[in-house]
Write a structure and sequence with these properties.
The complex is a heterotrimer of chains A (509), B (286) and C (335). Chain B has 286 residues and is an alpha/beta fold. Chain B is built from ten helices and ten strands. Chain B is globular and about 85 Å long. The chains are: A alpha/beta (509), B alpha/beta (286), C alpha/beta (335).
Chain lengths: 509, 286, 335
């Protein structure tokens, strides 16, 4: 044994108190689903965790109706301060149950406990805490005085950060006064269902948040539901495109947070050890299952060899294995399907002539695993330089001048994020200015904060999550008094503003 | 048989500790009917001086904490205050001669006010700060920062809500406070100190003096190491003289407010004790 | 500096920088090394600190920590008795468990070297058998504010008295006002003063006093400077200035050592000193060493802890592992 083999340090699963079966969370209660239920498994060993209900078309109707009812009868009539108090309660409950949620997340998703414990779950609590404070300050959201909520929000989230994406969706929606129907990803429903229990502990009025599980079809039914006023989706660009099409002609407000192929640009005057660390964090964080991952390394040609050499040295110290081991750096790939995609694209990379390298590492036999991989000699025309792999695979390209770096970085239909590494402040600001991406990290990467807006340019989607912009995405300006329908004047809070607008425009479809 | 009560000794709250006045003085606090309630410490100018030293020492840590952290600490005050509602209601009833309902309403408002301001800690900069489109190749960003040490004269007719209305907004951005409590109704102020001392607020961030505002305020107004002065509850004092004294070191001054809306929650109470800092940085790629 | 004086000869520097070794060429070389981003460095150090070392790894780590300790007393009030007491502890750290390994070295002031050698007796390192070394601080430790002849005499006296290792301080004043050449020359001269009559030399540890250098970029430059001038070890601190050793500073120095090894194949040691008091902290350093330069460095020839109170905490943890219950301060000795 060598010291670096570190004896196993598994996080205990004893903290979990899981049910064997989970229903749909509608109207504040768990109810049976009418679709075909399915199993959620641990991607690290393919063992079953629990049976999960699947929402049928009727279940989706019921969930939206519950949300609508809660909106009309309680949530839209409640003061912002009281809405905030509920959100503060949720934030505190999440903080109190942090360890449990982290273990469940790693179990269901395959991400290392180190990340779910130190990144995901603390951010979830922070997200609720931040938006809790907004609930009674909507006048400052930037839409003028007395902005209104939109109504019922349909939210569909991905499997890469299951609970964190839930908080990104639910916290601002509730703060702004909307009610929610949320669908977690098929492969990672577990923490959303534990979160439903937290909502019960917080005594949140029934129907304000409804969580329905199922596959892609459930999500499609949800976003296309006619009584939904807002659609918020995080996931692939392909599905985002379908959603954008399907809402055409409706008054649904839409936020889409889609794919990316971020450039991580390393200039020759970069703080080299920190840059290497940033490259590693940029692409191997969460097994590379990150829409904003720094999957294209653009390194200045004169330091290419040195950077790659150091990078390889650093990768050799990464520990791949049991997600619940506190020393694991890289966990399991979330699903067989995703593993297949990563494997296939990596094969294409080799076929196209790029050089493939992985550090020596022993992968577990059961479960879905992929060794951290870097491709050098990658050309801009290679598929691995253009398509989102969504896995622990880095494509390395070179550039000669800042102008070329910017041009190559922008040469993609995506535009979610980018990284810049240089000691020169003026270059950071100039390059950031020219990059067509929604989030630019300079001398750091993959940083998130509820106060900081996140979202993409171009085919990476539209709308922002986080910050004041993320709140405004769930609000509309007040209707001028003169045009306000009578009912709304009597009970301003209780109105369905979307209908008011719809009838005004006479464009119902 | 009724139990014989154990009365509390009310002292000052300075630098996270509860000392008596260095002067050894106290004064009787009477209830609405003129009956003796307790002795309160009568702070001297030296206590005020010590309070400023404690407040100054606490600026670096408090203003250096993340906004998220400050927000959580302020929210924690509300949580602990909630747990002590009964004590504060009782104190207000006795001290102000208010009805239980009115006292309860005052305590509830005070708790909600902490929550309202807690929420601002990581948001006010987003509302009052901005990027500036200057003509030239420069990145230009304006962000608010705390002013430093703020001296506050708390409203004199309110035991708790007035004090909270003045102190909470000052803390949001990272300032530290020396507050002179209501002279005739100081008991809730010291009890609030006990809440602060057990709610993750670092020692020295809030310092509470009881005694005569007329005696202490001039020393705070003229103190060169005080950066700003909130005269919210100084309406009955010679507050123009205080403002003049404050002018010597160009302290930021908020004037007295009277009436039921005095110290009503407002973003402007936060920004009054901040400084906008603008950073220029060249933007050049080649 | 108006005259670009040629610096003293150091084979390392000459190979690397080229034939002409001057203050200017040295400065140009040091300034050309990539910078350090403080936030990134500290985050990396913090991440390394989250490794969870359990069971068999922890047992190995605790014993190894003991074997890496320079058990130190550097007080104005040091006496022969105090040194003798510490020497006894160095040889037998835990009289209740004789399987406990001895420490790496005893670190004392120069005038105490004789007493230390005497007290260690047969346990002291000799030419033929490895044992516990005697390390002496020198060069007007801790401030370094004395003339060069005094520093040289200080060093030579300690070596003559039997010191196996010299812990010198650099002239921080000279470094901070940019006289890198002076710092360099001094190290080269002290290294020469470490030479014994038989031609062998005492090991030279160069203390940067990182708490006074303040910035990470300075620490990085000073590390390179010391290594170029011939340091066998680079050491963070005297222990008399706060902050003393920190994990980020040590990580940074380890990165320099790693880069030097990549460049030249030579292995330079690192010694964090001061402020490391718990086993938990010490284990973080072991992790940082192993994951930055490799496990090979977890060897007293390449890594040391400058510490005094650390040893007792390690002994308490060791007792816990052996007996299964928590121990208390009455079960380790005060020395």
């Amino acid at each position: 044994m060598t010291f670096l083999d570190y004896a196993p340090a598994p996080e205990s699963r004893a903290i979990l108190n899981l049910r064997d079966e989970y229903g749909l969370f509608i109207g504040g209660e768990f109810v049976q689903g009418n679709g075909d239920s399915f199993q959620t498994i641990s991607p690290a060993n393919e063992e079953r965790i629990a049976t999960i209900a699947s929402a049928s078309s009727g279940d989706v109707d019921a969930a939206v109706a519950a949300a609508r009812h809660a909106y009309d009868t309680t949530w839209s009539r409640m003061s912002g301060a009281d809405r905030g108090k509920y959100l503060f309660r949720i934030a505190r409950l999440v903080q109190e149950r942090t360890r449990e949620l982290a273990v469940a997340e790693s179990l269901d998703n395959g991400k290392p406990i180190r990340e779910s414990r130190d990144v995901d779950v603390p951010l979830v609590a922070a997200w609720f805490f931040y938006y809790a404070g907004w609930a009674d300050k909507l006048d400052h959201a930037g839409l003028g005085p007395n902005p209104r909520a939109l109504g019922v929000a349909a939210q569909v989230i991905p499997w890469n950060f299951p609970l964190l994406m839930l908080s990104w969706k639910i916290a601002p929606a509730l703060a702004a006064g909307n009610t929610v129907v949320l669908k977690p990803a098929e492969t990672t429903p577990l923490t959303a269902l534990i979160f439903a229990e937290i909502l019960q502990q917080a005594d949140l009025p029934p129907g304000v948040v409804n969580i329905i599980t199922g596959a892609g079809e459930t999500g499609r039914l949800l976003v296309n539901h006619p009584d939904v006023n807002k659609v918020a989706f995080t996931g692939s660009t392909a599905v985002g495109r379908q959603i954008a099409r399907s809402v055409a002609g409706t008054d649904k407000k839409v936020t889409l947070e889609l794919g990316g192929k971020a450039a991580n640009i390393v200039f020759d005057d970069a703080p080299i050890d920190q840059a290497v660390e940033g490259i590693v964090n940029g692409i191997f964080f969460n097994q590379g299952h990150v829409c904003c991952a720094g999957s294209r390394l653009l390194v200045q040609e004169n330091i290419h060899d040195e950077v790659i050499d150091r990078l390889k040295g650093r990768l050799a110290t990464l520990r791949v294995g049991d997600p619940l081991d506190k020393n694991t750096d890289i966990g399991a790939i979330n699903s067989a399907e995703q593993l297949e995609r990563i494997t296939q694209l990596s094969r294409v990379g080799e076929e196209e002539g790029a050089q493939r390298w992985s550090p020596p590492c022993v992968l577990p036999e059961r479960g879905f695993w992929f060794a951290p991989t870097i491709f050098t000699n990658v050309s801009t025309s290679h598929r691995i330089a253009r398509e989102e792999i969504f896995g622990p695979v880095l494509s390395v390209l070179t550039f000669r001048t800042p102008t070329e770096a910017v041009a190559k970085a922008n040469n993609t239909p995506y535009g979610l994020s980018a990284g810049i590494w240089t000691d020169k402040g003026s270059r950071i600001l100039a390059v950031a200015n020219k990059l067509r991406a929604g989030v630019i990290w300079a001398n750091t990467f993959n940083k998130f904060d509820p106060a900081s807006p996140f979202g993409g340019f171009k085919e990476s989607g539209y709308g922002r999550e986080g910050g004041r912009q993320g709140l405004a995405a769930y609000l509309a300006p007040a209707i001028p008094q003169a045009q306000e329908p009578k009912r709304a004047q009597e009970s301003r809070q209780a109105q369905r503003p979307d209908q008011a607008q719809r009838s005004k425009k006479g464009k119902k479809r | 048989m009724s139990r014989l009560a154990v009365p509390k000794t009310y002292k000052l709250y300075l630098g996270g500790k509860f000392p008596r006045s260095e002067s050894g003085r106290t004064y009787p606090v009477l209830d609405a009917g003129g009956r003796f309630l307790a002795n309160a410490a009568k702070a001297s100018r030296k206590d005020a001086r010590d309070a400023v030293v404690a407040a100054r020492a606490a600026v670096t840590g408090w203003s250096g904490a993340t906004a998220y952290n400050r927000g959580q600490v302020l929210y924690r005050i509300a949580e602990l205050l909630e747990g002590r509602r009964a004590q504060f209601i009782d104190e207000i009833v006795r001290c102000e001669g208010a009805s239980a309902d009115a006292a309860e309403a005052q305590v509830d408002s005070a708790i909600d006010r902490w929550i309202w301001y807690a929420g601002w800690a990581d948001k006010y900069a987003q509302v009052v700060g901005n990027g500036n489109a200057v003509s030239g190749p420069y990145f230009n960003l304006s962000v608010p920062e705390p002013t430093g040490v703020v001296a506050v004269i708390a409203p004199q007719d309110s035991s708790l809500l007035g004090l909270v209305s003045a102190v909470a907004p000052v803390l949001v951005s990272g300032n530290t406070v020396v507050v002179v409590a209501s002279e005739t109704r100081p008991l809730s102020a010291i009890s609030l100190g006990e809440v602060l001392a057990t709610s993750d607020v670092p020692g020295g961030v809030v310092n509470i003096l009881t005694g005569s505002p007329a005696e202490i305020s001039p020393w705070l107004a003229s103190h060169a190491d005080v950066n700003a002065l909130d005269l919210l509850g100084a309406g009955a004092l010679d507050w123009i003289d205080l403002q003049i004294a404050a002018a010597e070191t160009l302290k930021r001054v908020l004037p007295p407010e009277n009436g039921p809306d005095a110290g009503a929650p407002a973003l402007s109470r936060i920004t009054a004790f901040t400084e906008i800092k603008t950073v220029w940085h060249p933007r050049g790629m080649l | 500096m108006i005259h670009d004086v040629e610096l003293a000869r150091s084979e390392r520097a000459i190979t690397l920088i080229g034939g002409e070794l001057t203050d200017t060429s040295l400065r140009r070389y040091l300034d050309g090394i990539p910078g350090v981003d403080a936030v990134g460095l500290e985050q990396r150090a913090a991440a390394l600190g989250t490794r969870s070392i359990k069971t068999s790894s922890k047992k190995w780590a605790l014993d190894r920590i003991i074997g890496l300790i320079d058990l130190t007393t550097l007080e104005g009030a040091d006496t022969p008795g105090k040194v003798r007491s510490l020497a006894a502890k160095a040889i037998t750290p835990d009289s209740g468990d004789l399987s406990t390994p001895p420490v790496a070295a005893l670190c004392v002031y120069g005038d105490m070297v004789g007493y230390a050698v005497e007290a260690l007796g047969a346990a002291h390192t000799t030419r033929t058998s490895p044992g516990i070394n005697v390390a002496s601080v020198a060069t007007a430790f801790p401030s370094g504010r004395a003339s060069l002849p005094i520093k040289l005499a200080d060093t030579a006296a300690a070596v003559l008295a039997g010191a196996d290792e010299i812990d010198m301080v650099i002239d921080r004043g000279a470094f901070l006002c940019g006289r890198y050449g002076q710092v360099f020359d001094e190290i080269v001269a002290i290294k020469e003063a470490c030479r014994r009559q038989d031609g062998s030399t005492a090991h030279l540890k160069v203390i940067l006093e990182t708490g006074e250098l303040s910035t990470y970029d300075n620490v990085r430059r000073a590390s390179w400077l010391a290594i170029l001038a011939g340091a066998d070890f680079i050491k963070t601190s005297t222990g008399k200035i706060s902050p003393a050793a920190t994990l980020p500073v040590t990580l940074l120095m380890l990165q320099v050592v790693r880069d030097w090894h990549r460049l030249t194949g030579e292995k330079v040691g690192v010694k964090p000193a001061g402020g490391i008091r718990s086993s938990k902290d010490a284990i973080k350093y072991l992790v940082t060493v192993a994951e930055t330069v490799g496990e090979e460095w977890l060897d007293p020839r390449l890594f040391r802890f400058g510490a005094s109170s650390l040893l007792n905490d390690v002994l308490l943890q060791r007792q816990k592992l052996t007996t299964g219950h928590y121990s208390g301060p009455d079960y380790v000795t005060i020395d």
